[in-house]
Design brief:
The chain is an alpha+beta fold and about 425 residues long. It has 15 helices and eight strands. The protein has three domains: about 100 residues, Integrase, DNA-binding domain (Double Stranded RNA Binding Domain); about 90 residues; about 180 residues, hpI Integrase, Chain A (Orthogonal Bundle). It has a five-stranded mixed sheet with strand order 1-2-3-4-5. Strands 6-7-8 form a three-stranded antiparallel sheet. It starts with 16 loop residues before the first strand and ends in a 6-residue tail after the last helix.
Length: about 425
């Protein structure tokens, strides 16, 4: 950046320093957010305050924060004082003065640029997860959805937790090898691993713990490493597998038999079934209204007679009152979260190999199609987005979707009743 000049217009933020005021700092941040200013390799811009030698403002398209930059011995240190939204310029200046005059406080500052990456992988993950969960850290325009964050946590526990005690610098140096090794057999997981590491280092950079290039960026091209091509999964239950699954579900304790049976009968996403509310159900008309699905659209899910029967029995036998159809056992004010362990236990009992929960939804769509339901009806049943759908056809779509799901119930009934020798 160009050197500071007192003759510059106050809204010209290409200089490396200006006299901080509330308005000017926010204008500087706006210039970064709207793309008017070029950022460094870490997607940041730094300015020094002409009114306080040690005070700096760091801005990215996502946030802006004040830092105190000074020296402890031979080290240059960066200490985050607070975000632009939470801290006034006058308070930031006073904090700098206090740290400069108090050697004890000054010694507690964050690692220096030369010591970047000393934060452990485990501590970096905890800080990232907490800020992402609360919405303080955002990637893109929207906060990370809870279900997405849970999937990131699964990746961390499976592939990074074992390295929790190592420094971030080690992860940066090892990322390419870990990513390529994972991609050989598990390309989809490798792609999710890349996103987790990218977010982790972006958060660390914004907190002042990482000051060089994000390791997911290929130094040769300056762009993120290319993600692996993942082919669409085509795993459906056979008739024999469906028979074994239903037999295993009948032996399951509350609530797993109801939960997975309803997942298949509604062809809904597991996340929507987990968060099913009683006030979203109309058991008289046989409809379930989902306010917002994964594709961002509301959906009316038709409930076939068997599903309505299951839900009525469940409501009648509920031990405690809850707004959720599937509440947590220890805390009925919350809906259930973890269903993977139960699904693994059920698959083991039913001798089902490589069958995921989402494959129930895929199976319902496949069965409905095989039984003669038109693609438009299957799409309506699954809640797929369609640019041709209009409100005029909403009722017709619901009827055709109900017919499609009814075909799934007929197929399931035949599977349960089938003689094992016929399978």
């Amino acid at each position: 950046m160009a050197k500071a000049s007192s003759g510059r217009h106050p809204t010209d933020f290409t200089a490396s320093a200006f006299d901080f005021t509330e308005a000017r700092c926010r204008q500087a941040w706006d210039a970064v957010r709207d793309g008017s200013l070029a950022t460094d390799s870490n997607n940041r811009v730094w300015w020094r305050d002409l009114g306080c030698k040690q005070l700096k403002l760091m801005a990215t398209p996502l946030n802006a924060a004040f830092y105190r930059v000074g020296r402890v011995g031979t080290r240059t240190v960066f200490q985050r004082l607070g975000s632009l939204d939470d801290l006034r310029v006058a308070d930031a200046r006073r904090s700098c003065d206090g740290l400069r005059s108090d050697a004890t406080l000054a010694a507690k500052v964050a690692p220096s640029r030369r010591r970047t990456g000393r934060l452990s992988v485990g501590d970096a993950w905890k800080a990232y997860y907490a800020d992402a969960e609360s919405g303080r850290f955002v990637v893109g325009r929207d906060r990370i959805q809870k279900s997405t964050l849970k999937s990131y946590e699964f990746v961390y526990k499976a592939h990074l937790k074992v390295h929790a005690g190592r420094p971030l610098k080690w992860l940066a140096e090892s990322f390419k090898e870990l990513y390529q090794r994972l991609g050989q057999d598990h390309p989809a997981t490798a792609n999710r691993f890349l996103q987790v590491v990218k977010n982790l280092f972006q958060h660390a950079a914004e907190a002042g713990h990482w000051t060089v290039m994000n390791p997911v960026v290929d130094p040769a091209s300056g762009k993120p490493y290319r993600k692996y091509v993942v082919h669409d999964r085509e795993r459906f239950m056979t008739t024999a597998e469906a028979k074994r699954l239903m037999a295993a579900l009948e032996k399951q304790s509350e609530p797993w038999g109801d939960f997975f049976t309803l997942t298949l009968l509604t062809a809904a996403r597991v996340g929507n079934v987990r968060t099913m509310r009683w006030d979203a159900l109309d058991l008289h008309t046989g409809e379930w209204r989902i306010g917002k699905t994964k594709n961002g659209q509301p959906q009316v899910v038709p409930l076939v007679d068997k599903a309505v029967e299951l839900l009525r029995a469940r409501k009648k036998s509920a031990a405690v009152e809850s707004e959720w159809v599937f509440p947590m056992r220890k805390d009925p004010s919350r809906h259930m979260e973890d269903v993977d362990q139960a699904w693994g236990r059920i698959c083991e009992a039913a001798k089902l190999v490589d069958l995921r929960i989402h494959d129930l939804r895929r199976t319902a769509g496949s069965w409905a199609t095989q039984e003669g339901a038109p693609m438009s009806a299957v799409g309506a049943a699954l809640g797929h987005k369609s640019i041709n759908s209009t409100k005029v056809y909403a009722r017709a779509d619901t009827r055709s979707a109900r017919d499609a799901v009814s075909k799934v119930v007929d197929r399931l009934r035949r599977a349960v009743a089938a003689d094992p020798e016929e399978l």
